[in-house]
Here is the input.
Amino acid sequence: MGGSIGRIGFIGIGRMGWPMARRLVEAGFAVAVHDAVPGRAAAFAAACGGHAAAGAPEAATGADAVVTILPTSREVEAVVAAIRPVLAPGAVLVEMSSGEPSATRAMAQSLAGQGVSLVDAPVSGGVARAETGELAIMTGGDPAVLDRVAPVLRAMGTAITRCGDVGAGQAMKALNNLVSAAGFLVSVEALLIGSRFGLDPATMVEVLNASTGMNNSTQKKLKQFVLSRGFDSGFGLDLMVKDLSIALQVGRETNTPAPLAAQTRELWAAAAALLGPGQDHTAAARFAEALAAGELTSPQVARKG
Here is the structure.
């Protein structure tokens, strides 16, 4: 399965990729970075160290492992096509995007023909936990290959869970976001109902967090990004819709009826259509507010901006 990982090509220096690649540099790996945005790789190298590659093939040349964290599987497929001529037998592609499990499995099968392994390792935790190296990482792939890249993953995350074969990590990530997305919308609707009844939404959040209604949104989103009117968690609304679409795709491919999941995805897609591109995912609360013809505020929470 190859030796230890020393040199890493890192492709995708976005909001998540930048701090993740920085963690790898700080851990002592030789990191060559590339990003589709002109000048971003050079800016990273100047700020964090490592080598700014002129293109994805240069970043992957001589690499023991190549990390990809890109918007969709389509971009990953394009990168794989570009770098596969320079990937040496024994190299590992660590696919950390929130991609489509079936597409990832197809890439893994194709790369295996030239002696290159692929594991998927999508992440959860947002930019804040990427900065501190405390991401949750869900992995799929051959256990021996995962053992080999474990030091790479440990430099970026603290909760690393093996979920199964290739694609299992991405399926788990999409299903995690499905549960999170449903919890967010129903939490916002509950606050709207309570607010119209006369309850202070901030007080409602406190009660929910001390009761059985507690979830990730009540703990980390409602006061911080909705009641503050900041809507700036760092995870895009378009990316949430993409992940929900992947969850439903997995449902279709496994012949699993999922009417509530389908409705959740449609509501998020409607929010994205109403609010337009470039929105933070917590701005979906504005969609629920528009339906209710009201706005969530609290005298206990200071407004941002």
